[in-house]
Amino acid sequence: MMMRVPARARRSDSSVPVAARVIAVIAVLFFAIPLAGLLWRAPWSSAWSVLTSHDARQALRLSIETSLAATAIAIALGVPLAWVQARVAYPGRRVVRALTLMPMVLPPVVGGIALLLALGRRGLAGQYLDKVGVHLPFHVGGAVIAETFVAMPFLVLTVEAAFRGADRRYEDAARTLGASRWSVFRRVTLPAIRPALMAGALLCWARALGEFGATITFAGNAAGKTQTLPLFVYVTLETGNGDAAIILSLVLLAVALAVLVGLRDRWLSAI
Amino acid sequence: MSRCHAVVAVLVALVVAACGSSSKSSSTPTTAASSPTTASALSGALNVFGAASLTEAFTDEQATLKTQDPSLHLTYNFAGSQALVTQIKNGAPADVFASADQKNMKMLSDAGLVETPEVFARNQLEIAVAPGNPKHIASLADLEKPGVILVLEDPSVPAGNYARQAFQKAGLPAPQPKSNELDVKSTLAKLTSGDADAVVVYTTDVKAAGDKVQGVPIPAADNVIATYPIAVIKGTKNQAAAEAFVNEIVHGTGQQALQARGFLAPS
Questions:
Q1: For the whole model, what pTM was predicted?
Q2: How sure is the predictor about B5, in pLDDT bands with cuts at 50, 70 and 90?
Q3: Min distance B217 CA to chain A CA atoms (Å)
Q4: B247 with B200, same domain?
Q5: Is there a domain that residue B255 lies in?
């Protein structure tokens, strides 16, 4: 649980042994060295031509569109789910929680296979979608579904904690004063969880933007339709254009860092 | 349980996503050692990087070699040849590389990373469709009809390059596949899952897939012969075994394993 850090704890604590500090430095290097590797090999002089190439811009635009769509779906479905999970007691709630958080720990490629078997043209549900003309593999919709599947748990987890942590006395008071349930949600509950909702949406969006395994397995690799930036990075690296792959990796890295910094300063500290 | 966990998880996920495909290159030291090859030299640890289409034949051959010398510890890495070239260029610990085309092998010989390659097999393209051929595919031209979901390999993948050559030889416009997969096996998987109506792969892949798919031959005039070269990686830690393995593939038991899986003899 994030909480305001008491001033006392901010002072350096001399009880942490030197060995632990040394290991901590190794841990930091473990994260820092791969990033340094990217920066070390980055072909800065060709950065502009890579970023403005038709294929890269197409992948970038597709990535932004699909990740925003995935985030919108995740909010529309995930906020009610988080609300129910936090406030409604029912048998099997733990099972539902495990089910809805599973994509966070599942290898994305397994998620992709599962989606293909469920929503592919001959899949469990996909065969009926096919009859009404809905095709997800090889279409933008498939990329959005893959991203939503993998990213929505990040939103649900964050928002559910906020629903559970919100002080219900304000809602009760609003109800006794005659406000309707909807009105209480809009005027009292929603403002209380807004920082968590923003943080959850941002985490969800960042995860959707970086999605690779489920997308390539379920939606395929189709330029302009399902070839998002991570797929494009992978394909360009494989086809021997390492320079482009590094530049575009740095773009994704910059976005990831910006999200984490933004989270820390604006929303996480607000709760 | 909460945001802390989410932040940690997303951090890990983002670092993986952002950095997963980057790797540092290290130049491989070159040695000019060359020793006479014998079957008994085939022992110790050996990493063989092979084109995805070689999966079944090379796996069969592994069993044969194992019975000859149980101390052989053979590890395969199968992927699209273009992916293997990238891995080897970036210092992956390969001892032998078997490519599905000359182009990718040439990229390594031009970079001075392999010894002289030898051709060990040839292969041909074939159209694969669902059993019963529900879309009545009879030729390459049928693959470009509206309503046929065609999936190919990416043009950088040898099979994807060959397939586009075949369309060209048949006098057809460049195909517009619904997806460009990164090796022949994942291309075939899109057919067996039912999401593609037709794919173009090697005859050996159609054979390996058994009754899960049906093959539609491409006429010899339009077909492209894929040539498979194999080479020892320069600076391998197990020179004797690497040379012995190449020898088995080019002249020995490897030929039977390959031809049993439908490959054509090297010439």
A1: 0.78
A2: low
A3: 25
A4: no
A5: yes
